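Example record used in the benchmark description.
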Amino acid sequence: MAIPSYKSPSRTSYDVVIVGGAVIGSSTAYWLSQKLGARASVLVVERDSSYEFSSTALSTSAIRQQYSNPINVKISQFGVEFIKGFRDRMAPFYTNEPAPDLGFRENGYLYCISPEGIEAARERVELQRSLGAHTVFLEPGPLKDLFPWLNVDDLGGGAWGSRDEGWFDSMGLLNGLRRAARASGIAYVDNAVTGLELTGGRVTAARLSTGETVSCGVLVNAAGPRAQQVAAMAGLSIPVAPYKRYSFVFASNTPIPGRMPNVIDLSGTFVRPEGELFLTGNTPLDDGPADYDDFETRHEEFDDRIWPALWHRIPDFEALRVMQSWTGHYEYNMLDHNGIVGFHPEVRNFMFANGFSGHGLQQSPAVGRAVAELIVDGAFQTLDLTPFRYERIPLDEPFMEEAVI
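Model output (structure tokens):
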């Protein structure tokens, strides 16, 4: 990994310092700029401004509403609204060129359901539909009619998001948020936070790699997989660690006709189209905390586990050829796979925005807005994200999400 060339901030004091400038940090910066306008005094500190190894850049860039918790469904519904309206929202910040279109492919997610999982799946579909989602449960016959290339012999059915689910341009989202935030007066600096100074139960300043100390009124931890490193600087602890996820792009000798969704197999393997190619991945056997700088791909995962699962579920995937692969990190919340959002009860100006366990990209519009509301208004104004509060962590009271990929 290349050694970054860090720069110094232009000021020594800001009302808000955000540690991490990828999609959660930049969404927070964007929403703060919209709420504060010219009053915004916000610094975003990003240790890798190329974002080469950020979870945002290495994400599979998808969004779904098929969750078991109502708040996660609502978060994604706002995310879809934000993605669909992104070009219009960003237009004021692109005066000399068109605002970005995130290329949302609304093909949906298709969860394969085992015979013994039918009842729970139907309950989740009912919940999602009661909240306005367009999920439908399909028994094996109708499922085969709709997707004739799918092997349904061992399935009890499938849950398909017929609208408002799919995949999009993750870096387009990040770059648009950054551009809007910076155009609105938010400062970004290529640097790394190496320590925090605390006085009287508050963070008073952040120390940077270049030697400066930057005073702050609020410190936002948006450091992704490195969230625990930042928490530890304040003497705090959260159960968040980097977990490796391997992604493989492959070509198939046999094309898949029609509108192919993102298929989630019983094995946990997913696959979706990417133009004439396909993207796939799974929860690997070596799942567990990884080193922060470990992005090595275990290619045996494709040969030993992913390809057999693909061939079983989609028999047309008999002859495949891997064209590209990469490894990204989930900022994995080992307690309950849900985000941690809110101020610490004792270090009162330390804000968590961490632990989204692979959902951070799709949840970033709502989470950034929520964090800005807590900072500016002192309480949630739109979606109530109280279930994501930090207080559940030391109490060991998980807020579980069943639909984790």
